[in-house]
Amino acid sequence: MEGKCILGLVVLLAVSAWAEEEEVTEALTTSERIERANRDVVRSPGEPFVEDDVAYDSEAERNADPCTSSGCMWPNSADGKVYIAYVISRVYSPREVSVIQRALESFHSVSCLRFVRRSYQKDYLNIRSLNGCYSYIGRRRNSQDLSLQRYSCVYHHTVQHEVLHALGFHHEQKRSDRDQYIRIVPENIIPGQEHNFDKIHTQNQGTAYDYGSVMHYSKTAFSKNNQPTLVAIPDSSVQFGVASEMSQMDIFRLNKLYNC
């Protein structure tokens, strides 16, 4: 009986520790979750060059936004919808598949995009559990990897974030006009991670800067001392990088880009 009690206590403590860890994990912002998942990862042979969570075929591509340099959109169909085929790896659990599918379906009610299971389509998203969370920017050709590593990246807002990359959107604080809204604090950035704050030429579609975007970094992203690496200007009290899902501006831009 004593042995059973001890065993029960061990199980209870283990479950309690797991629940506490889950609670802490759930409290992470999208930016923090992705940063943690991608921290110190080692890419396998065949994986692309990845900066933060954006994949490129080569390092030379990283300073150009494909939506302004070569086109990145998925095509509209005759019925006005944009059908995007996808495949989900069999390594995911039923719960993980459900999270991914719900995130994909969340685009259906707010836009003309429709994610469909791949049957014959040549171009499609290949959702896999690779090393960390990452996606290419915009439509590529043929099979296009979108990595959602198990236990690290399969959360509703993380899936939305990576899918928005695949639809053509970059991080908000990389916008070409970001210096009017965000100040970078280089002295707080982890050495060697400064490139994650590079500004690029983006297609802003005439829309306002969105502090509430699910594509925005948190204020301590890539911080070496837990001090801010990003500060809102002119009002430093403005919160950002804490979205748990797409903002209304994210949705507006998506519909504008795809003429929904």
What does this structure look like?
By secondary structure, this protein is an alpha/beta fold. Among the domains are: 2-28; 49-170, Collagenase (Catalytic Domain). It contains six helices and nine strands, in the order H-H-E-E-H-E-H-E-E-E-E-H-E-E-H. The strands form two sheets. A seven-stranded mixed β-sheet has the order 1-2-6-7-5-3-4. The longest helix has 25 residues, at 2-26.
Task: Please sum up the structure shown.
The protein has 260 residues and is an alpha/beta fold.
Shape: globular
CATH top level class name of the domain at 49-170: Alpha Beta
| Mean pLDDT across residues | 86
Number of strands: 9
Order of helices and strands: HHEEHEHEEEEHEEH
Structural classification: alpha/beta
**Biggest β-sheet strands, sense, barrel:** 7 strands, mixed
**Radius of gyration, taken over Cα atoms and rounded to an integer in Å:** 20 Å
CATH fold-level assignment of the domain at 49-170: Collagenase (Catalytic Domain)
In terms of per-residue confidence, which ranges show pLDDT below 50 for 5 or more consecutive residues?
A: 1-25
Strand content: 15-25%
**Annotated CATH architecture of the domain at 49-170:** 3-Layer(aba) Sandwich
> How is the largest sheet built, in terms of strand order?
1-2-6-7-5-3-4
